[in-house]
Amino acid sequence: MSGRTVVRGGLVVTAAEETHxxxxxxxxxxxxxxxxxxxxxxAFTAERTIDATxxxxxxxxxxxxTHMEMPFGGTRSADTFxxxxxxxxxxxxxxxxDFAVQSVGRSLREGLDAWHAKAEGKCAIDxxxxxxxxxxxxxxxxxxxxxxxxxxxxFKQFMAYPGVLYSDDGQILRAMQRAAGNGGLIMMHAENxxxxxxxxxxxLARGETAPRHHGEVRKALLEAEATxxxxxxxxxxxxxLYVVHVSAREAVAELVAAxxxxxxxxxxxxxxxxxxxxxxxxRPDFEGAKYVCSTPLRPREHQAALxxxxxxxxxxxxxxxxxxxxxxxxxxxGRGDFTRIPNGLPGVENRxxxxxxAVVEGHLSRRxxxxxxxxxxxxxxxxxxxxxxxxxxxxxxxxxxxxxxxxVLSAATHHMDVDYSAYEGRxxxxxxxxxxxxxxxxxxxxxxxGRAGHGVFLPRSTCQYLN
Length: 467
Ligand code: DUC
Ligand code: ZN
Ligand code: ZN
Prior knowledge:
By secondary structure, the protein is of the alpha/beta class.
């Protein structure tokens, strides 16, 4: 496990700076950096040398929003922790934070234990857990304190999915008050699910059953309304708030207004909202089902507000909401009734590449790419500076990235355990070449050399973004 590796000659890109530097790795951590070609760099000695000339050397990606083996709509997401974390590594992500689920009537502990059992010994890369709180009772609130102490420091609540994962405003307020006291971060799925269910029932009664109607009933205004309400509840509770998978420009406007007031309100978006649209949801022959997720894809015009929010720091993080369901046998459950299509898209393998493509196309700077994909999610979820940067003492989670190679995204070549790619046929510039997790090679010159069980559970500290 020990041993030294030196990564020579690459452009080291962090959220803070870009420097041509050699990186010395020892015992799984970054031991030192020195400008390439200097005597200090030449003095680095190691058993293994990785030549990164002409490449970027990046901190491993931190994907703060995945759903491996998640039960949903009578089925479960297709990637296991083994296949999903392997695919993440192929795509340059070395940490995932997945969502453990509290079932209604059960304790948080039971949900968390179940997720530990799914992940332990299976992961190729390190992982943490958020806790989905779907049944707020007095005992639940006390359990939140204990989870924070154990390093599960963030809690997702749903204003959508009545009868399943939904919390009402009183339950949300109570959980927020608790989080304000114990340092936890409330992550909100902000859509008015009560109103959406009325519109869905009315659509089905009119015979509107196709996948595109999923997007039409989950209106942008109902995302914005819930975002506004969540912000006001967090304000009343005196708690910070992190809004997940923001897709509507009207919701971005609510975040901008809150942040202009100086409130500790943060927003995440996902590649699917930046690169895909209702045009995909409207694909014929039920193919639109591949693009059913919640919040839904929006008309293309919304994308400009998301890119702008990422540039102005009104949105801080890009995660994937990776929640893959195969088209055959899973998405097909909703033929003839869009409400039965399992919600979710695959993407854990594609995030770093798609965001690099955004750099190529001029939407983001290189450093901002690393900030929104590595450093800020690590800070937001209490993992920094162990994860998310390249600095002495940090875990040696490193990606050697070739910024010039082009690749075509496809289900034929991806490693996610799902039978389609949401980005089938799309050409992007840039590709992961080599990945280290705590100094151990996981991908080496585009060959998988990792192993299930290398990845360990990461107890996290509380949100560091305000520090
Ligand atoms: N949205 C999805 O698309 N899938 C899983 C859960 C969620 O909120
Ligand atoms: Zn959600
Ligand atoms: Zn999600």
